[in-house]
Design goal:
about 210 residues; alpha/beta; 4 helices; 8 strands
Length: about 210
C-alpha cells in the first residue's frame, strides 16, 4: 500500500513537472508564402538564362550547427547564449541552402535541378557555398559572411566570390531571425548579379558590407 501511495505521489510530481516546462518555439528562415509568391526579379539588363542551377551549402560555422539558436551578447563577448527553448524548425544548413536555391533559381528564371533531377543533364550553373559567419547579436542584428565558388555553363574557370552582410534588428528573437533571413536574401541577390558574369553590385546593396569576385 505504501508503495502505491509513493508511486501516486511520484506520478503526480511528474505531471506537475511536465506542465511547468516552458514550451519550445521553432523558427524558420524560409520566406513567408505571401512574400515568396512574388517573383524575384533579375537585375536590370540581365535576361533569363537557358540552363539549370544547383546551389550547394558545403559548410556552416560549427558553433551554429545545432538545433538551438545561438545568440551573441556584445556585453559578454566572446561568450554566447544558447537558447534551449528556441529551436530551428529544420537543420540550419538545409534551411540556408533552401533559401539560397529558391531565390537564385527564381531570380535567374531557371530551374533548380535539385528539385527537378531529370534536368541534371542540361547546361548547369553550379554555386558551392561556405558560410563562414552566421551570427545573431542581441541589440544589433544579423551578421552573415560567405565564400562561394561560381561556375557558369559557358565558363571553363570557376570564379571565387565572397561577401559580408549586416542587417540591423532589435533584441526580440523573431526580429533577429528575420534579419538573418534578409541577409540570406541579400546574399542570393549578390549571387544572381555578381557571380560568373563578373557584374559587381546588387539590386539592393543596403546591407552589403563588402563583396567581390576573383
Amino acid at each position: 500500500m505504501r508503495g502505491k501511495i509513493l508511486g501516486a505521489i511520484c506520478g503526480a510530481g511528474v505531471l506537475l513537472s511536465a506542465c511547468s516546462v516552458t514550451p519550445s518555439n521553432y523558427y524558420s528562415l524560409a520566406t513567408p508564402a505571401a512574400v515568396s509568391a512574388i517573383a524575384v526579379k533579375a537585375p536590370s539588363g540581365m535576361q533569363a538564362a537557358s540552363y539549370g542551377v544547383r546551389v550547394q551549402v558545403l559548410s556552416i560555422p560549427a558553433e551554429s550547427d545545432r538545433p538551438q539558436l545561438l545568440i551573441r551578447d556584445p556585453a559578454q563577448d566572446p561568450e554566447v547564449d544558447i537558447l534551449r527553448q528556441s529551436l530551428w524548425a529544420a537543420p540550419l544548413a538545409d534551411q540556408i541552402q533552401a533559401v539560397l536555391a529558391d531565390r537564385v533559381s527564381a531570380g535567374l528564371g531557371v530551374p533548380d535541378v535539385q528539385k527537378l533531377p531529370n534536368l541534371a543533364d542540361q547546361p548547369l550553373r553550379q554555386i558551392r557555398v561556405r558560410v563562414t559567419r552566421f551570427d545573431l547579436i542581441w541589440g544589433r542584428g544579423a551578421d552573415l559572411a560567405a565564400v562561394w565558388m561560381d561556375r557558369s555553363p559557358e565558363a571553363a574557370d570557376t570564379q571565387v566570390c565572397q561577401a559580408q552582410i549586416r542587417v540591423p534588428a532589435g533584441q526580440a528573437v523573431a526580429s533577429l531571425v528575420d534579419a538573418q533571413r534578409q541577409a540570406l536574401q541579400a546574399l542570393a541577390a549578390l549571387m544572381i548579379s555578381q557571380g560568373a558574369t563578373g557584374m559587381v553590385g546588387s539590386p539592393d546593396s543596403t546591407h552589403i558590407v563588402q563583396s567581390g569576385c576573383t
